[in-house]
Specification:
The protein is of the alpha/beta class and 385 residues long. It has two domains: 260 residues, TIM Barrel (Alpha-Beta Barrel), CATH 3.20.20.70; 103 residues, no CATH class. The protein is built from 14 helices and twelve strands. The strands form two sheets. Strands 1-2-3-4-5-6-7-8 form an eight-stranded parallel barrel, surrounded by eight helices. Strands 9-10-11-12 form a four-stranded mixed sheet. α2 links the parallel β2 and β3. α1 packs antiparallel against α10 and α7 packs across α8. The longest helix has 17 residues. The radius of gyration is 25 Å and the shape is elongated. The C terminus is likely disordered. The structure holds 3-hydroxy-3-carboxy-adipic acid (HCA) and copper (II) ion. The site of copper (II) ion (CU) has 8 residues, from loops.
Length: 385
């Protein structure tokens, strides 16, 4: 797993997210940050617009160490757009499922393969390195898919991309799909999993276990419909569950998420794993009690590792341990009676969560969260009525 590569498609798949359209400068900023984070490749589609072409050209000149992949359809005209941007790597895609061939493209299986081979040969004749993606592979007839991958490889494709375009796979199925592709080609295999059933991460990991060489992600899982595997979730799962020794700059994960959210005007959902506000927030008294003794009791990731903040919520669920902690940070050495009385008092207020404290590694207070101050003011206003 330590050899598994990561391709970030925030600038291509991510821009297919509803409401997302980056400016040229934003794309360059994202590219620089992903490069610094340590992904192996980033992907962008120059055929979309002049601004995308200029972004790609600028990225090519920027001296990034990450591989830049120019994504387009399996058509000579899209290859030409990529060539005009001086790229080394292109990615081209063509549908292989019957539903796409008949309803989207209105062509036969034979015509699809023929057109794809021509596009591959065209790109190779211009000295390009090439990934070929068999779109909607997970709904294709396995025999046709296998034949298609083998012919495309013979035509010169350097990598084969296996997407679960509609997010319909189970992890076991994804593993089987990778095995099928591995039998059909000796080229490295990319995997691209959509999250329609919330299985993108599980499917990506299963594909990696089955021998996929590279996994596609986006920042915060942005992408068509509900998106694809998220960069933060995949890289942290690899580190925690597979002991990957990749030296990504994990501490940038929260920052990357905030940056993209500021560009898209979509707030990061509080419940988003790893980078969401709630990812390291603790509330119930039993949890606070344990956290105060040892944060590992309820945290698998120290927030500092991913650039996030630990927060403690105080209110009706705080219990006597939460109350004792609160007294201590206010400079009062708590007795059992005081702690119990405050816990009961917090419950009797019947106000739910009262406020949150952002705390550091040693559980010392960093800040009272501003949103909570507003809530607190509301509490006081309503209790004086
Ligand atoms: C699309 C296609 C694609 C391609 C994936 C890839 C998919 O959005 O139009 O090139 O690896 O999900 O099949 O994103
Ligand atoms: Cu996709």
């Amino acid at each position: 797993m330590s050899r598994l590569k990561i391709l970030d498609s925030t600038l291509r798949e991510g821009e297919q997210s509803v409401g997302v359209s980056f400016t040229r400068r934003q794309r360059i900023q994202i590219a620089w940050m992903l490069d610094y984070f340590g992904v192996d490749s980033i992907e962008i589609s120059p055929a979309v617009s002049q601004s995308h072409r200029e972004s790609l050209q600028e990225m090519m000149k920027a001296g990034l160490s990450t591989q830049i992949v120019s994504h387009g359809r399996a058509l000579p005209e899209d290859v030409d757009v990529s060539r005009a941007c001086d790229v080394e790597w292109v990615a081209m895609y063509h549908s292989v499922s019957d539903i796409h061939l008949s309803s989207k493209l209105h062509i036969s299986r034979e015509a699809a393969l023929e057109r794809s081979i021509r596009a591959v040969e065209y790109a190779k004749s211009h000295g390009l390195k090439l990934r070929f993606t068999v779109e909607d592979a997970s709904r294709a007839d396995p025999e046709y898919l296998s034949h298609f991958i083998s012919e495309i490889s013979k035509a010169g494709a350097d990598r084969i991309g296996i997407p679960d375009t509609v997010g319909i796979m189970l992890p076991q199925g994804m593993a089987k799909l990778v095995e099928l592709a591995r039998k059909a080609t000796n080229r490295p295999i990319d995997v691209h999993c959509h999250n329609d059933l919330g299985l993108a991460l599980a499917n990506s990991l299963a594909a990696a276990e089955a021998g996929a060489d590279q996994i596609h992600v986006t920042i915060d899982g942005l992408g068509e419909r509900v998106g694809i595997t998220s960069l933060a979730e995949l890289t942290m799962a690899l580190k925690l569950l597979y002991n990957s020794n990749r030296s990504f700059r994990y501490e940038m994960l929260s920052e990357l998420s905030k940056l993209v959210s500021s560009y898209t005007n979509n707030p990061v959902p509080a419940t988003r794993p790893i980078v969401g506000k709630n990812a390291h927030t603790h509330k119930a008294g039993t949890h606070l009690a344990a956290m105060i003794r040892n944060p590992e009791a309820y945290e698998i990731i120290p927030p500092r590792l991913v650039g996030n903040t630990r927060r403690l919520v105080f209110g009706e669920l705080s219990g006597k341990n939460g109350a004792a902690y609160l007294l201590r940070i206010l400079g009062v050495e708590p007795t059992m009676e005081m702690s119990k009385a405050i816990a009961i008092g917090l419950k009797n207020l019947q106000c739910g969560d009262l406020f949150e404290l952002a705390v550091d590694d040693r559980l010392e207070v960093k800040a009272l969260e501003s949103e909570s101050k507003i809530k607190q003011a509301e509490v006081f206003a309503s209790s004086s009525n």
